[in-house]
Fold these 4 entries.
Entry 1:
Amino acid sequence: MNLKTGSLFWLMGLCFWVFLFCCSFSTVSADTVGGGNKVGGNVFINEKSPIGKIDDDFVCATLDWWPPEKCDYGTCSWGHASLLNLDLNNKILLNAIKAFTPLKLRLGGTLQDKVIYDTEDHNLPCTQFVKNTSELFGFSQGCLPLYRWDELNTFFKKSGAVIIFGLNALSGRFLRTDGSAVGDWDSSNAESLIRYTVTKGYNISGWELGNELSGNGVGTRVAANQYAFDTVSLRNLVQNIYSDVEPKPQIIAPGGFFDQKWFSDFLNKTAKSLDVITHHIYNLGPGVDTHLIEKILDPSYLDGEANTFGRLQSTINSSASLAASWVGEAGGAYNSGRNLVTNAFVFSFWYLDQLGMASAYDTKTYCRQTFVGGNYGLLNTTTSVPNPDYYSALLWHRLMGRKVLATSFSGTKKIRAYAHCAKQSQGITLLLINLDNSTTVEAKITFNDTSTSHHKHKLHRLHRLHKDHHRHRFHSTKVIRFPGGSKTSEMAREEYHLTAKDGNLHSQTMLLNGNILTVNASGDIPPLEPLNVNSSDPITVAPFSIVFAHIPSVVLPACR
């Protein structure tokens, strides 16, 4: 071997060791991505019985009436997202709805109580909304042409959407100077639309009366006794028109903010007429608030909405009504949301936490404001490209089954934990949300047969009395049991890790297991592929991330 050859071998050896060192360094860096601390924690799931049962099409979204001239704080964010001007030939729009098979859509919003339907009983010109600040809600009366109603229903049938239509509940009423709307509801125009709909064979799953007229109302209000009388009238009307049709549409009301006395009076007077009671949620305040992200990342603030869910559930249970509870509209921040917050990655923390919390209080359906429109759409108002919350909603819809499991987390207060029986498959699905910007959490799962005073409110940390997670006292707690005596190491779970592009909470691009989610050139929704992970390993939840974990090998009594 000459000197030249020896030098070559020496250099090759040096390169080999440098390569090994670099690989080792890369592995360490990947494991500690996000920096900060690593802590452990335990997810407790009560395996005995479910605490709630959601609709199969629990995930719902809204389509609104706002025209392009709708502006908030100097920003006009609605574009062509109205029921009257939405591009129904948009492939992304169609594919985004079809991906849910089905998606429940609630058609309505503030201006629904100023919409006239251009049916045979309407003899005036069918004019569109015109901005007028002196008018109620800042716009003139608008009109739904029948040809547009035909176009919408053709689109809905093609997309497979389940439709809830919000009727004008102010028709025939007189607005008083004290802010109240009095007089009986004039149902004639609504009746014409419903009859036309049935004649054409259009499938409407539910008719909802009014928008935000309950309690103190928004813009105006209707007394509970009057609203109940009108809801009974709607029920009788629908029963008559659908006399030869099965199944009959649901009767839904009032689509407003929860007011305990108003809702109690209303429920007791509509006991045999109301199928669904709907309430709205904008608990983050106005879209102009510069502290929205602080609220979203504050577990105590998020817990606050449990009070509304709990009081509504108690009100329903103490009434004579059998009505189911829905969130009929929820955009988090009112007045069209806030750009790069309510349409960005960070909002999935609020949104998924709301879905989990609502489910734990036996809410059957949760309608997000909006599917498209404003700054809180699941789709971008201009391009129709899905925002991060769209993928969060789709994963929930595909993974979280109908039966809700009582769940709590012991460890950092920055973890939000929810679990359901898996959807269309064996096992359970766990949702973990990490609101911490620097701490990685490694979560282990524990099941129990019974517990002492562990109703769902305690298990979700929603009462201050039980905020100390280390006080949980479960009987017969156990680690995961696998069927057939299989070893834990041989079983796999499916994980879906959601993060923001470049770690930027304001990003409108979401990553699934490190891969960017985006539609292709044909407007197709991307596949949502999981990682397969050994079930003996704890679930790793990175800082500012969301994890869905489907564990098919766990079969609980609650899920049978």
Entry 2:
Amino acid sequence: MEKKSVESVALSDDDDNIIAEDVHQLNSTTTKGKKTLKSKVWNFFDILPLGVDQKLKSQCKKCGAQYMASSKYGTGNMRRHIKVCKRNDTRDIGQMMISHDTNSLSLGSIQYDSNKFRELVMVCIVMHDLPFQFVEWVGIRAIHQYLCPDVDTLTRNTGKADVLKAYQREKLKIKAMFEEVSGRVSLTSDLWSSCISDGYMCLTAHFIDKEWRLQKRILNFCFMSPLHTGVALSGKIFDLLCGWKIEGKLFSLTLDNASSNDVSVEALGSQLQLKGLLPCNGEFFHLRCCCHILNLVVQDGLKHIDRAIEKIRESVKYVKGSHSQVRKQKVLDCVKLVSMGVKKGLRQDILTRWNSTYLMLDSALLYRRAFEHLALSDSNYKSCPSAEEWDKVEKVWRFLKFLYDATLVFSGTKYPTANLFFPSISQCYLTLKMALEGTYEYLKFMASMMWVKFQKCWADFSVILAIACILDPRYKMTFVELCYKKAHGEDSLEILLVRNKLYSLFDEYKFKSSHPTTTSISSRANEATSHLESMEVESNLDLFKVMKPQLYIYSYFY
């Protein structure tokens, strides 16, 4: 389209002789047969059939204007019309575009760029999770041809090749980003099974870039062969890390609470530690997924659901699962009758997700008066809890709220969460202890079931996450000491362990800053440990006046 419009303006006066010759040839060969017309003017005009007057005429393809095409009339009129045609591409108001340079309206044709077109198609495939054969769909090709007749015809192989090229470009960008990272990289990994039971592994990196911005990048989502043993998992992760060349920048690996993951992280940590690639001899390398453990803890407590919660579930099903408009209208009438201004809807729970049970109780308590009125007006509704059962449900809801809030904190993706673990889990710990020491029997039973799993997984709070809390200026050492005293008493030895690990980690970073050419990290850790033993606690506190090493430590945790 652009080429045609430019060529139309570029027609010169010398074309008259060629055009006139073409018309003369056309006049002399109308009865003998058609000849190919080579002049550019015929890209814009069609020769009309002879009419009643037996005169040869031409018609503009854009606006339909007709001109005499006989040689005695000449063709200058057609050439001049091309320049002033109202339907020409360069005069179409739809082609008026905003200039990127001056931010003003400029008159011109849209230029088709095949490389830009292929890039946009590639981005569309990735963004909307489309199959590669998307570019071969008849409807899509028809749209492209309508917008630009000169558009390139793409195939599924072309789309696949473009996506792979884009992946390689982005991979190089992330590798360059890793090279500029001065701190450490923390990893999370999980396994996923498709609907046909194929296993896949997802490896995600969390780090702080050179601009001190929190970054999260999915490094690999790859096929994992069957037999997900610990040795196979550790070998797979190590190969992926070597491909990204970040095996020397790792700090921690977070996995769920599966036994095979414990074996894999132990094997991987040993392999990295043989090369001296982990700080503090790999002591902080393995972290357990807090959300997964918290889910296991609560699931144990909710295995034996009270009859009151069963009635709430049946009541919600009675309202939401009803296909009768009459029943739904009764519920709406009850809501209006008790003057409830609540716009929040009822939530139905999923048995495998405990947080959905909490949300169901949260929404049902808002509609308590509506349910009580519905029980009086609808004889078919027989699952309304009694007043005593409603009070029991409210106590369970308050008990679960602390655990639900902790899950939301752990699940955050737009902010660092390592520094928020210790305050949240300490609150859960104290809530369970209070429930165990309380007088409400059902809550005591739930808390006892949760306490067994909690003690198994978190008998000793994660030391490195406690250090992260200390480095948060909102909490510092005082808050951690207070939590340990409440949990283990005034003479708790755990706080001394946290303090020693913090100083050891600080000394290792300090040694790294002053000896950047030393090759063995493990030797530096041993030297820092021996140095710590010769120092007093009070002198160690003065080290925190140095700001730069503290920032380096803080970059470890995200």
Entry 3:
Amino acid sequence: MTIDKSWTTIRRRGSSNEFWNGLQHFLQMATAFVNDRGFIKCSCRRCLNNASHQLEDLESHIFRNGFMFGYNQWIHHGEPTTANAGANAGTTVAGPSGGIHERDEMFDVLDDIISEDADEDAVGGPSSNDQYDDLFAALRSELYPGVSSFSSLNFLVKLMHLKVLNKWTNKSFDELLKLLKLAFPKIDLVESHYEAKKLMTKMGLGYSSIHVCKNDCALFWKENSLKDTCPVCSESQWKLQSGKRSGKNVPHKVLRYFPVGPRLKRLFATSKTAKLMRWHSTGKSKDNDVMRHPVDGKSWKEFDKRHPQFTGDIRNVRLGLAADGFNPFGNMSLSYSMWPVVLTTYNLPPWICMKAEYLMLSLLIPGPQSPGKDMDVFLRPLIDELKELWVHGLDTRDAASENGVFRMCTVLLWTVNDFPTRSSLSGWSGQGYRACPTCNEDTPSMRVIGKTAYFGHRRFLPTNHHWRSNLQFDGHTERKRPPRKFSTTDILEQLRRVKTGIPGKHPNYGGVKRKRGDDELNWRKKIIFYELPY
């Protein structure tokens, strides 16, 4: 009897029924060779039969890492020796159609999630990360005895999805889990929302909680991660009761940071979205006079001219950033401002890139006050990652390419915001006599009944326009030319004269109002975006 082993060379394991069926047949053969402690040699490309695991771990290892090369006769897993096998030659045994249980749809989801580990031969070696073992255990587990087509993981993912769609509270979710446990005592399900969330985090796309100084002076992150007090104002990062730290450390503020790289890699993990990520090059308008996507604009084309190495691979990602404040409590009598920072991917076509499911939340800045001039403090994790994605890139599996893995680089093209938010993101104050960021130091303004008014709009008209000579506007003829355009060199020269301020809102440090000099114009600071090398 000849055993069909062609499944061991399949690369796209998650989307192949042949690999799954062959793996189940291999496990059935190996069951008889488990030792008295329940262990058996692992034939994945990482263990190479040198390490032993339990049978359920053997399945997840081979599925994630692939079957080892050169192991053609399964002498450690139940295959007869060559001499014994010759008597039964001539029959091919394919893997069974069922297996331990019917193939669950979550296998395809996990294949997308661990695609970087699954394609280790393209990246340069298998991963040694066992973070997915719990997911495979939940995927192997039947939801209820006798229900072979619905795994515990599949049910939990769908239940969490319903929670989000219908805005269930964590408490109501816990009560539902208790009810299910009471009604179905043998159901294999987590005990609480905390446990469910902990398991879902292993599927990727989680976030990092970064503590923030109560005065917005600094993040307790990287070089400050081990400090208990702010390096600027010396305030404690923990809430104190009667001048003492409570039994449990509770930070004053927490910044939620959602890493960008893993989310961008997920867009290339399936062939459908991977093809859409090329639309900006393959589907853009051929008419130079039509603009239906940012790729048709001058800024995009100018960037392409300046950075031909980046544009050489159409899969490199271009992002836009938007930020604004909102009151999360829906109570206008309560003053609270929380600021989400959202990224959109402009590689996608225009009818997709602005849909909610393709917008990426990167930062959730806590209140109760708006970040204001301290926006740079909160943007630090995002800017550091964007610099890394520009300089070094990220090895990414492209499901729509035969080459498999490429080095994905990323660029932030611009920001999208209202005028007040622009002050926080650009560093140019939107108040005072020089509030206009376009006119810059040439902004025409005057004081009218306690308020600043801006005039001179007719100078944007053509020089021969009849409204320029109309006296009904302000009683004068407009002869001024449109405001001059400031070059990058001009702006950088202005920023060179701006003094570096102290971050934060502490009344003795960053909260002290500083009078700007005339040479600083309306600049409050040189914003953190200037650290980006492009």
Entry 4:
Amino acid sequence: MPEGRKCLPCIGRPVAESRRGALGRGSRLLRRLLSAAEVDLVMRSERQCAANQLRPEDVYVNGARLAQEELAVLQGCPCPPSRLRPGFYWYDKVSGFWGKEGHKPHCIISPNLSVGGNLDEKASNGNTGILVNGREITKSELQILKLAGVQCAGKPHFWLNADGTYQEEGQKTVKGRIWDKPIVKLLSPVLSLPTPNKAANQSGVEAASSGSRPEYLEQRTIQKLLLVGSGTSTILKQAKFSYKSKPFSMDECEDLKLIIQSNIYRYLGTLLEGRERFEEEVLADRRKLNKDDPSSSGHSGSEFCAEVTEYSIVPRLKAFSDWILKAMAIGNLEDIFPAASREYAPLVEELWKDPAIQATYRRRSELPFLPSAASYFLDRVVDISRTEYELCDMDILYADGITSSDGLASTDISFPQLALDVRVDESDPHDTMLRYQLIRISNKGLRENSKWLQMFDDVRLVIFCVAVSDYDEYHEDVNGTIVNKMVESRQLFESLALHLTFEQMDFLLLLTKFDLLEQKIGKSPLTACDWFSEFTPLVSRNLINGSSSRSTRSSSNTGASLAQMAAHYIGTKFKRLFHSLTERKLYVSYVNALDQESVCSAIRYGREIVKWEEEKPVFNSSETVYSGEEPSSYSH
């Protein structure tokens, strides 16, 4: 196999460009047929043989076709373009910015290279009116300039150097460095914009004299995974625990403490509102009975006893309850708590343990705004309110959101460094060059700023999370309308699937909170959601009534449980919806967000989908005898 995986008639012929991305990457089947040393030899031949190299006449830079010498300079510089393929590119020789014609910058390469023609003003199809080195920049770049503190009023023109220093055209004074502010380097990858490295700052003279490219070999390609939907904050936090040596900074921990301490009083307020409602319902029923039964009015008895119900609390706790509800009504609960949380923690604990509140909590299915984690924190309210309170891992996972703003968050993942990933294929050299970035946007952030989606046109996979227990739950949207959570998830899913940014992207649906579905499915049917009105499973009476100890587990005797059938039905509904909208396949998997290994498995499955989609052009071709095994669209 002198040129890798080529049949005899194809030896000496150029490689098909649709296959260039998979050069030197062994397939699963190839690794099963050959030894590791043989696979390595074949892949090395495939990468290095002359026939498989990129041809200079297929690459245009700033409108000019490259010569062989220019291509050698471009590929041999300390920081060359990653994954260079035939096409039309623009190159800013002063700053080193590089991108495809009509698109924003893709990366920053070595500056001052003598390649291509002159940079055109409309090279990146910008529409901001602001020129940088003669090129009109895009909206994403304008946002980064503003974050860097660059004054952009009046649409000025700038010169930007490779080291990040900038100045206005016609002036000699350097105004600053755009890379000095940490927020610029933090948000540039999120906005799909590049940041420089050491090699990018070397001049073209140094690049030409340097035959090695160590920075390029060490540079990793970022594969972005977008995480949206219900329960995404818990999945991102699990990813941080799994893939980061220090998952959360001190500032992030302080933010999470504040979130937890403030939310305790929100949970309590929801319970107190429910208590008042339940108490009023019981009293109204009693009054109705007394009105319908005149003989009861003549009976001796205390009116006070008639006004006491299982939802009644003692006057001392009633006064505290009224104070909290008043603070919630006027909207200044944040101003009072958690500053006063230590002082009132014993009262909160006493109120939480009161029989009336416990009776209210037993009817939590009727309290749509009470999260399942409420009891976890209320049981420990005194400890949480202490000054020396330290977060444990479960506190972080159960906390609502990630930061006080609960907007955009991300974490980087490098699979070869993960000890838990026992299935990492060390024989695949390409995988060690990849770095994955999991980016999470909250549903609130999507509703308030849908323009963010345009910044993620280079995302490789959209991971959409749906809580299967949401089918009978409701919440108040930004317009004050009470909506079904599952229906809202479907609407968000539809908007993403139809968004132009994700037109050709793969989607992975993660079904979460299966444990809560098991608890409620016997009492609250799936048909409570109008979208699932056609769900009519054939199950035994034991499964419906929940009388069997094995009703929530599959077995060889009973088959699938009611909860399993319901979850599968939900997944199928989303698959059919996705196919009707896009005529493409939706990948589906289950995940327990509180189980670290389950989350890691889901992320690994997402990685396999990305790898499989990359291999498709090669291994689905009729010109090769090798073929991969497509991962199932359902993963358990």
